[in-house]
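Today's session is about reading a structure prediction critically. Students often jump straight to the picture, but the first step is always the sequence itself: look for stretches that repeat, for charged clusters, for runs of hydrophobic residues. Only then move on to the predicted structure, which in these notes is written as discrete structure tokens rather than atom positions. Here is the chain we will use throughout the hour.
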Amino acid sequence: MSRIWERYIGGDVLYDVFNAHPEYDYACLVRDSDKGSQVASQYAKARLVYGGLDDVGVLEEEAKKADVVLNCASSDHEGAAQALVRGLAASERQDRPGLLIHTSGTGLLIYKDMERKTLGEASAEIYDDWDGIGAVTSVPDLAPHRVVDKIILNAEGPNLKTAIVCPPTIYGVGRGPGNQRGHQLYELVRCTLQRKQGLQIGAGKSFWPNVHVYDMSKLYLLLLEAALAGGGKATWGREGYYFAENGEHVWGQVSKAVASAAHKQGFIASDEVVTVSPQEADELTPFGSLVWGTNSRCRAIRARTLLGWSPKEQSLEAEIADAVSSEARRLGITVGHAAKVAG
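Below is the predicted structure for this chain, in token form.
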């Protein structure tokens, strides 16, 4: 039985897993009846569990019943992570240990830029989850997501196996019943459309990895299938750390491409990109200076080597035109008069 906590990532993961394995029993954590009706409309078979991440008693009891828990809801909720670990470890299943697949994020890797307060500059440091996994699993506690990562990394025992999936910038329209919109790219598009000009942090030279949401969900599916096959070729515990990367981008180049697409589609008057301060970026979107101005560079070797993960969806750059048009529709922004006259 699988437990999947549903949001943008969780909604798409559930779509992929459910369609591959309709024979599984599913339970989905939903906050309220509105969210529950959305999930039920797409997955009538799933059992709905009402609650939130603060409802640690609910999480612990549900984890006790599960063979596998996929936590796709939060990378930073300590109480929820601890409750899931306790529940899975306390299960009375006899045939195999419980399995927890937790979602972190490559924001973990930005801590050096945070310390130095260097934003918009490039870094040559690239992490990997194979030969370099020790560096990934031993970053300092000040790194984003590190506190909960440690809970998961230290949790493995005779009745529990754990793995961490670490997604980067995620793009593409999700297939879940709830939120279908990613964050970093789509917030950059929103701000460009609403400000009517492109924007970047500092020199715009910082790197981030990226992955299409469909490819990311496939990694979760492969890991889940390995888990239910007794572990398969997958590694778990302190070596069960999987980056979900399929290339990288430079934020300044993405800003230029967004502004160009918005201009070509008639939403802004020019494709100019201006530099904004970290304070301005943070006012535009929470932690904007960090999500667009820091470096997070990694290579996903483990999933490719052990699970045969082979991303195939279009690149982030190819997604930008669609991201601009979809954000404009969501915001109710129409093509300007001058653009209409120009044809």
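Discussion point for the tutorial: The two ends are 55 Å apart (CA to CA).
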